[in-house]
Amino acid sequence: MRRDLVEAARRGDHEAFEVLATSASDRLYAVARLVLRASDLAEDAVQEALVRAWQQLPSLRDPDRFDAWLYRLVVNACADQGRQLRRWSNQVRPLPLEPSIPDDTGAVADREQLERGFGRLKPEQRAVVVLHYYSGFSAAEIARMLGIPEGTARSRLHYATEAMRAALQADARQPEVAKNRTA
Amino acid sequence: MAGNERFDDSIGRWLEETAPNRLPQRVLAATFERTRRTRQEPAWRTVLGRHQMPRFAYPIGGVAVLAVAGVIAMAAIFKVSHLSNFGAATAPAPTASPSHTFTPYACDYFPAGGAYGVTLGTIRATATVPNGWHGIRNFFKLSNSVCVDNGSVRLEISLVDEVYVDACDWQGARVDASTAAAVVHALTVQESQSWNGTSDTTLGGYPAKRFEISVPADFDTSACDEGGPIYLWPDAGAGGFHRVPMASGQKATVYVVDVGGSAIGVATVPWTEDATPAEIAELDAVVASLRFEP
Q1: Distance of alpha carbon A139 from alpha carbon A156, whole angstroms
Q2: Mean pLDDT of B90-118
Q3: Which pick of A27, A58, B36, B292 has the fewest CB atoms within 10 Å?
């Protein structure tokens, strides 16, 4: 039935497209909101992605790839939003990556620390993190979805995770540094 | 290794916790406003658009186009002068270029009258629609108006597995209602609507409960989510669309049908000021024609 809807939407059926878009909208919004960290930007990104989806649907060769294709459009729209507002480039402060130390940061990581670590990621890294850890896609699926080599998807995921871990470790060290300075 | 896994789990849990639940309805509405006004691009144009050409390609392309145009013009001049030596040429008959047919929107999709069917989840629902009626595919919403939302009578059929706790706060909490009995119970206690009585009946060959739901005339639906109206349930068979919109003063006859363990919600809504007895009789006939196939 879903395939039929995609076929109908490709032929210009507004109703079919609206059913498809509505059924996907919450998932897409969640991804956009998590990547952009701002509701208004995420709403705009989803709207842009869905309008592009409607416009470009005739070029979608395989209807079974519709969902993956929508994710790709949303990730691209998120990138556009970030570029337009030049927020990401201002917010991104790359941290030096340190070798991963076997530790128990997972146990102590709290929401604020994760938020800070995530906020320091580049947009393409955020997207991969969200698609993997939230939407549950494998690196291979993300690669196909975003049209990037699988190795690139894996490395983005690896560096993003390491960057978040490094940010958490840096945060954890700061109180000790401050304590040493005052001692 | 265990630390890595715990860290991965932490990221997953944090994303789950901070993810929003729903895209605001106004965003979808605005999106569909835009798509309805937007034509789809031909496939070739999108494909070409993916290949970004270097800047120098554009002037080169322009020069090439001019050169080709010049060659064609020269050839045409030569041909005319050549033909003039041998008498008048017969001009080719104009041929109509194939006209592009744009798909009409909404109500024009289905020819009036006849059998009409939609699959809700795994259940096939069909009805016999009178002349002049229209429907929306995939929603199973029928109306006697050209514009579906403004019909004087309408019928909505949904696969129901959740009911809004408050029909006015339809972006808020929902209650799981996976059986017909659970749907009936959830509707009887649903806030922001008045529920009246219940009776046993059959619909489409399956046992059903029939009752009425109304919105008091003095109930201000503009205070509801997105500025109203109220909605009774999301349609599990159609992507969770909010279903059975009702405004102040409206009354719906609701059937909850137990089709092989799944709950099908059927709501008939005559617009109180516009519906004539003949139209209501037509609506009842459509309901009586309903058939379900699990």
Answers
A1: 9
A2: 41
A3: B36
| Pairing outcome for strands B262-270 and B251-259 | antiparallel
Q: Measured between CB atoms, which of A23, A50, A164 is closest to B31?
A: A50
Contacts of A102 (CB under 8 A, 6+ apart): B1, B3, B4
Concatenate the DSSP letters of all residues of A115-168 into one string.
HHHHHTS-HHHHHHHIIIIIS---HHHHHHHHT--HHHHHHHHHHHHHHHHHHH
A179: which 2 tokens?
A: 């304590």
| Sequence-ordered alpha helix ranges (H) in B211-268 | none
The values of phi and psi at residue B248, to 5°, are -55, 135
- The pLDDT of residue B161: 93
How many C-beta atoms surround the C-beta of residue B96 within 10 A? 5
Taking Cα atoms as reference points, which of A106, A135, A108 lies closest to residue A35?
A135
Amino acid at position B157, single letter: I
Q: Which residues have CB under 8 Å from A111's CB, separation 6+?
A: B14, B17, B18
Q: For residues B12 and A131, is the Cβ–Cβ distance under 8 A? A: no
Distance of alpha carbon B109 from alpha carbon B131, whole angstroms: 14
Residues of A in contact with B41 (CB under 8 A): 55-56, 58-59
Query: How many CA within 13 A on the CB side of residue A55?
Result: 15
Question: How far apart, in Å, are the Cα atoms of B249 and each of B218, B230, B240?
Answer: 8, 12, 25
Q: Tell me if A123 sits within 8 A of A78, measured CB to CB.
A: yes
Kindly determine whether residue B137 and residue A16, on different chains, have CB atoms separated by under 8 Å. yes
pLDDT of residue A122: 78
Residues of A in contact with B12 (CB under 8 A): 133-134
Q: Is B43–A59 a contact, with Cβ atoms under 8 angstroms apart?
A: yes
Using H for helix, E for strand and C for coil, what is the string for B55-109?
A: CCHHHHHHHHHHHHHHHHHHHHHHHHHHHHCCCCCCCCCCCCCCCCCCCCCHHHH
